[in-house]
Write a structure and sequence with these properties.
Among the domains are: 67-135 and 439-529 and 569-611, Rossmann fold (3-Layer(aba) Sandwich), CATH 3.40.50.740; 144-259 and 311-403, 3-Layer(aba) Sandwich (Dimethylsulfoxide Reductase, domain 2); 709-833, Barwin-like endoglucanases (Beta Barrel). It is built from 25 helices and 35 strands. A six-stranded mixed sheet has the order 5-4-25-24-23-6, with helices on one face. α9 packs antiparallel against α12 (321-328), α9 crosses α13 (332-345) and α9 runs parallel beside α15 (378-391).
């Protein structure tokens, strides 16, 4: 007879979607996982990754005890000669190393993590309390360019679209709605439902990936040219068809702001001016204006000025479809047709009733993610796509473009602004509240060099440069200790040789690991990390990615342990809490948490008191939801849900901010950076993209000596980053997918090189060389080699994934975007038979 047979509510952690799940436990063993129908983000379903979470828990190759290196030599494939040690010895070592550095200079400690939860719930507060600012080491090119743009253009960390009403969806380099991207499970369900109602999808991508293969139209494009394509479409809309939403542009953008010949706004008494066409004079942007002028030229105080929108029209006119076609390889006729369809399907001027409220209706949207801008000069691609959306006036209205939770029930309703332009909110966890307009530029103190990149939301890749040459960047210290959890700087980074060189420079490295991966091979200490089915994490649904407006709800849940941790595995957040206590900065950590989580009396953490991880979690829940909704309530009931109001779902008519069609802030930032870097003796700093109207620039350059193709990567819906490649069930699925673990090459390109289907081939870049099995296909741009994002592990400690597939990142040079710092994923390669 079964002694234990129960279903337990929790939250998946197999990607960043954080789907609600029901876990079936029988006699202490997890036997099944399914979607929680009570979770708005799941709708009762989960994907293959979610089901396969069982195999993460019971993987026999998991690290289940602390390990200590005995071989001083470090490198990929070099045996660290691990010896098991006790947790007491491991903690004593950590306390000794960290205490010493804390007394000398706490800034010598850096932490890298890409853990869905801990990277924001504990790592930043823990390091701040310790005294180090070096916690921005994550996501080498996950969304670097994207977040830099969306913070600026829509005021949030992300971008999305209103699937409930959109009729024409243009996907630039992303697979949202087709098993990947933001909230993949939910998006797949909602997009599938919308397709049945007539939604048209156009996928613009070098590879006919999962989304493109299911779309109504696939538009193959040369990698790194999306910005040129968007500018070409904008040129057609503005200068050929005259299709644009004048009321939106006048009221909700800085299109009317007057610009001087030097590219800066014309200001009087510190305020940008606009031209009132009805009264024939210039006025401050926030004055009563009868009719904003969008076009023309006007003389103000003897200076000829033009509205920003006029400058945009002139700027994009150099990107005619004929010129853009040569850049992108997309036919000029296709560019014109796509622009016309986008403008027509937007139904500019139309309205719709939602819950009895009449709202603007713009059922066309352009959505983007990594692919469109994961290259040098990638911010220009993101900005171009956002301008395309602004042209049709589709921001925050039914059918259109959405930022991720701009406003909501627990923070200030009206977004902040600077000179009328939207500024990201700092009142909720959707972001850091970055104000690009007032950001200070100075000599850096952080290894992420944040101080020199005021337009970047995620300058993580800079950590390689600063740790390699701290003296160049005038860092007042030399980093010595590196801590890491769920961040693989190899499979998720670039240039393996350079990365290894940086890691070897640290005096001490400790990783929290489930397996001996490439990072663990460089560690001095490996601490066994628990899986999501073994740990407690309250409120994992962050407002900046897994808290989706598509649901029509606000929702908060709990990830709870379903079984005790196997072996000696521990939740790394709990380990850090204990370290703070033993090193002596627990009180400072509590004060940081009080601020970060907005804890209110009587649930504030007492700096003089010691709390367990469970108690901290309890205080967070009760502070936000009241005494009757503590941990036990959430464990039993799963979720707190609040229905979104119309103004929360579609806030545009109530907003009193403008969106930047013209980005003077880039020019301002560039001038600040130039002054500081030249003062530091760095005379060759790349400022090419610090312009008010961005240009298309090549995302990669063809090299000589046969480097005549571009390698591009793609995502497989049954995998997430590189962390799921070790999962036995998901690995089997990939092995039976004819594309997932193979190298895609176009039929004609393969023929010219004498390559046949399933031949073994080499792909070589300036910094790396990989081998794999060719998949000859028509579903790829002829100039492109396609390699997925998930496979090719070099770590024998991950036996399921070791040697399977090809790792794309080994080919990538350390080439960063000058604005966002994202590592370029466009790389020139040569391809030949093995």
């Amino acid at each position: 007879m079964k002694k234990d047979d129960t279903w337990i509510r929790s939250v998946c952690d197999q990607c960043r979607g954080d789907c609600g799940i029901l876990v079936h436990r029988v006699d202490g063993v997890v036997v099944d996982i399914k979607g929680d129908p009570d979770c708005p983000n799941t709708l009762g379903k989960i994907c293959a990754k979610g089901y396969a979470g069982i195999m993460n828990l019971y993987d026999p190759s998991r690290v289940l005890t602390p390990l200590k290196r005995t071989n001083p030599e470090k490198g990929l494939g070099i045996d660290p000669k691990w010896v098991p040690i006790s947790w007491d010895e491991a903690m004593d070592t950590m306390v000794e190393k960290l205490s010493k550095v804390m007394k000398e200079d706490p800034r010598k400690v850096s932490f890298a993590a890409f853990d869905n939860y801990g990277m924001w719930a504990i790592m930043p507060s823990w390091l701040r309390a310790f005294g180090s600012p070096n916690y921005r080491w994550y996501g080498f090119y996950c969304g670097n360019y994207l977040h830099s743009c969306t913070y600026l253009t829509n005021g949030t960390f992300h971008c999305d679209h209103d699937i409930a009403h959109v009729k024409y969806l243009m996907l630039f380099g992303n697979q949202t709605g087709f098993g990947a991207g933001l909230n993949p499970n939910l998006s797949a369900q909602t997009v599938a439902a919308a397709r049945k109602k007539g939604l048209k999808v156009v996928a613009i991508d070098p590879i006919c990936n999962h989304a493109a293969s299911k779309a109504d139209e696939w538009v193959p494009i040369r990698p790194g040219t999306d910005s040129a394509l968007t500018y070409g479409m904008i040129d057609v809309l503005l200068n050929e068809l005259g299709i644009y939403d004048q009321p939106f542009l006048k009221k909700y953008t800085n299109g009317p702001y007057l610009v001087q010949p030097d590219g800066y706004h014309f200001r009087r008494d510190g305020k940008p001016l606009v031209w009132d066409a009805a009264e024939g004079k210039a006025k401050p942007y926030d004055a009563e204006v009868a009719d904003y002028a969008l076009e023309g030229s006007y003389t103000v105080d003897g200076i000829e000025c033009k509205p920003a929108f006029q400058l945009l029209k002139e700027h994009v006119h150099k990107y005619t479809p004929e010129i853009v076609s040569k850049i992108t390889t997309v036919p000029a006729a296709t560019i014109r047709r796509l622009a016309e369809e986008f403008g027509r399907e937007a139904m500019i001027g139309s309205t719709i009733l939602v819950d009895g409220v009449e709202l603007p209706y713009r059922p066309a949207a352009a959505n983007f993610y990594r692919g469109a801008g994961a290259h040098k000069h990638g911010v220009a691609a993101a900005v171009g796509i956002q301008i395309l959306n602004m042209i049709i006036g589709n921001f925050y209205v039914p059918g259109g473009h959405m930022g991720q939770n701009l406003i909501g029930p627990s923070w200030s309703w009206q977004p902040q602004q600077f000179e009328g332009l939207i500024v990201p909110s700092s009142n909720h966890d959707a972001g850091h509240g970055i104000n690009y307009y007032t950001a200070e530029v100075k000599e850096p103190e952080t290894t992420a060099l944040m101080e020199l990149y005021p337009m970047s939301a995620s300058p993580a890749p800079n950590n390689l440069a600063s740790n390699l040459e701290p003296e160049k960047y005038k860092l007042p210290y030399t980093p010595e200790i590196f801590l890491c959890c769920r961040q693989n700087l190899f499979t998720g980074g670039c240039d393996y040789e350079l990365t290894a060189k940086v890691l070897k420079q640290f005096k001490f490295i400790a990783t929290f690991s489930t397996h001996i991966d490439e990072m663990a091979e460089f560690a001095d200490l490996v601490l066994p990390e628990s899986t999501n089915l073994e740990k407690l994490e309250v409120l994992p649904h962050r407002l900046n990615w897994s808290h989706s407006p598509k649901t029509g709800w606000w929702y908060w849940g709990v990830r709870q342990p379903v079984v005790p941790p196997l072996g000696e595995a521990r939740n790394w957040c709990e380990v850090l809490l204990e370290l703070a206590d033993r090193i002596g900065f627990l009180g400072a950590l509590h004060e940081n948490w009080n601020h970060q989580f907005g804890l209110k009396d009587p649930y504030k953490l007492d700096p003089a008191k010691k709390y367990s991880w469970v108690e901290v979690s309890e205080m967070r829940l009760k502070s936000q939801f009241g005494a009757d909704k503590g941990l036990e309530w959430f464990k039993e009931n799963g979720f707190v849900k609040i229905k979104r109001t119309v103004d929360e779902q579609y806030p545009l008519p109530w907003l009193k901010v403008r969106f930047p069609l013209y980005n003077e802030v880039f020019k301002t930032a560039g001038a600040k950076i130039k002054k500081v870097t030249e003062g530091m003796g760095i005379m060759d700093w790349d400022l090419s993209d610090y312009e008010a109207l961005l240009e298309w620039r090549p995302g990669w350059e063809e090299s000589k000596n046969g480097f005549d193709l571009s390698a591009s990567n793609f995502r497989v819906p049954t995998h997430s980053t590189s962390m799921t490649a070790q999962n036995p069930w998901l690995s089997e699925v990939a092995e039976n997918n004819p594309y997932a673990q193979r190298i895609l090459i176009h039929t004609e390109t393969a023929r010219r090189r004498g390559i046949k289907n399933y031949d073994k081939i080499f792909v070589e870049s300036a910094v790396g060389k990989v081998t794999g099995i060719a998949k000859v296909t028509e579903g790829i741009h002829p100039e492109v080699i396609g390699i997925s994002s998930h496979f090719g592990s070099l770590a024998k400690g991950k036996p399921v994934s070791y040697g399977k597939g090809t790792n794309f990142n080994r080919l990538l040079p350390y080439d960063r975007d000058p604005v966002s710092t994202g590592v370029s994923a466009c790389v020139a390669v040569k391809v030949y038979k093995a």
